[in-house]
Write a structure and sequence with these properties.
heterodimer, A: about 280 residues, mainly alpha, B: alpha+beta, 4-stranded antiparallel beta sheet, 1 helix, elongated
Chain lengths: ~280, ~140
């Protein structure tokens, strides 16, 4: 298992947190660039125009898309690798850091919705219905965050560009000010991200009348499959919130650590299986 | 925590006022974000040839022409709001998200959706006809 040991060593030694932060910077800058031509009143048209008509538009959109995906993926890897070391964090700091993960996921999700292609449109409508399914406060939350049916993509755009970014920064501020990243130490990685975006186009799924299966964003597939069998409130609210709460308490010092760990791993495995089903069985 | 003389420190009163003030501000905020400006009925003009037993698909509805009537059925799935597509061979509408099925008259054929699709009023004017579909 020499190869296995080598991979494990590489995983443990790679500075995933640095890479995640660099990707976040790239995402923020490329997002501003892409936003110059994006129009929330004509979301699919302006997104397609960025790809097809605007010089280097396809590249900047690709850079924005992939740097955002990598930001989240590397953040997750960073969390896994430093899990033991994070025991020194106080409960409040640790909770704030855990909460950056769902906020980052919501940023990714709203980015998908803003494309308003067939995937994005459906994802937005499903999110709206999930929010509305929350008892008492659901309609208010939907009016605050999405309200796509009544107001188009304006609120989603506002939150994608401002609110969730500010929320992320507030939650991660204490962590970010302690651990600074020198981009000059990661030039190869930066070059890799820039080159990757040059050769791999960001996806877009135009509306087609004869399409009878849409697979949502990759992190949404498991949820999409759950919604086939379970009510939206259960699949879209109870399970994800329970998972996040479990992560918040998943600390070695916690008396329920082992049970929580089993629960978290089981949930992840189940979600992976559902995602695989969504991707393969119904397509 | 009390000061030396055993009275409540000044900060406590200020914090209470701040908290109550924040709660009071929450009410107009919630009223503000919950307000729904009534939507103008959306009238969609459909220019196109609609043969008998044919159809015309738009973003919000599909216009069908039967032998004696023309009707518009919503394309918004009643499960979670995805846009339905028309399966011509089977003459039904299917949701690409979770494969709920509806008849061309909006009747629910298969879940997970639980409600039928609404039909929209259609007006036909002029020759060749232009169709006006009102979505409310």
């Amino acid at each position: 298992m020499i190869i296995g040991d080598k991979i494990k060593e590489w995983l443990l030694l790679t500075r995933w947190g640095d890479w995640s932060l660099i990707c976040l910077y790239a995402s923020l800058v490329s997002g501003i660039i892409v936003g110059i031509h994006y129009d929330p009143a004509e979301p699919f048209y302006s997104t397609s125009a960025i790809d097809i008509l605007v010089p280097y538009g396809g590249y900047f959109r690709s850079l924005h898309f992939y740097s955002s995906q990598f930001f989240f993926l590397f953040a997750v890897l960073h969390y896994i690798v430093v899990f033991n070391a994070a025991e020194i964090y106080r409960a409040k700091s640790y909770t704030f850091l855990i909460l950056t993960l769902p906020v980052a996921l919501v940023l990714l999700f709203t980015g998908y919705v803003l494309r308003s292609d067939s995937t994005g449109f459906s994802a937005g409508m499903i999110a709206e219905h999930i929010l509305e399914a929350i008892p008492l406060i659901g309609p208010t939350l939907n009016n605050l965050l999405f309200s796509i049916s009544d107001h188009g993509l304006y609120r989603v755009y506002l939150h994608h560009v401002f609110s969730f970014d500010i929320l992320f920064l507030l939650l991660a501020w204490d962590h970010l000010r302690r651990y600074k990243v020198k981009i000059s130490n990661h030039l190869l990685f930066v070059g890799g991200v820039l080159l990757f975006s040059l050769f791999v186009a960001a996806p877009i799924d135009p509306e087609e009348l004869g399409v009878f299966y849409i697979s949502g964003p990759w992190f949404f597939l498991g949820l999409q499959e759950m919604l086939r069998y379970l009510p939206p409130f259960l699949a879209g609210v109870v399970f994800p919130v329970s998972f996040i709460i479990a992560l918040v308490f998943l600390r070695k010092q916690h008396p329920w650590y082992k049970a929580l760990l089993v629960g978290v791993l089981f949930s992840l495995g189940g979600y992976a299986l559902l995602s695989w089903l969504a991707f393969t069985t119904h397509g | 925590m009390k000061d030396i003389k055993g009275t409540q420190p000044a900060g406590f009163g200020r914090r209470t006022i701040l908290f109550i003030g924040s709660l009071l501000l929450l009410y107009p905020f919630i009223r503000f974000i919950n307000h729904r400006v009534p939507r103008k009925p959306k009238i969609v003009e459909v220019n196109g040839t609609l043969k008998v037993n044919g159809y015309l698909a738009k973003d919000d509805f599909i216009l069908f022409a039967g032998a004696e009537s023309i009707w518009a059925v919503s394309r918004t799935c009643t499960h979670l709001g995805c846009r339905l597509n028309y399966k011509e061979k089977e003459s039904l509408l299917e949701c690409p998200c979770h494969q709920s099925r509806f008849s061309t008259k909006g009747q629910l054929l298969r879940g997970p959706a639980k409600r039928k699709l609404p039909l929209y009023p259609v007006e036909q004017k002029g020759i060749p006809p232009t169709y006006f579909v009102t979505i409310q």
